[in-house]
Amino acid sequence: MMTIRQIEAFRAVMTTGTATQAAALLDVSQPAISRLIVDLEETVGFKLFVRGNRQLQPTAEAEILYDEVLRAFVGLDHISRAATEIGKSNKGHIRLISIPALVGSVVAKAIAAFGRQHPGVMISLEVEPSHRIFDWVLSHHADIGFATLPFDSDAVVSEVIARSASVCLLHASSPLVAKDVVRPEDLRGVPFVSLKADTLFRHRVDTVFQQAKVERHLAAEVRSTEAVFALVSEGMGVSVVQGSFHPIERFENVVAKPFEPTLEVNLVAFYNRKSSLPIASRLFLDIVREMAGPR
Question: Where is the HTH lysR-type domain (predicted)?
Answer without folding.
Answer: 2-59
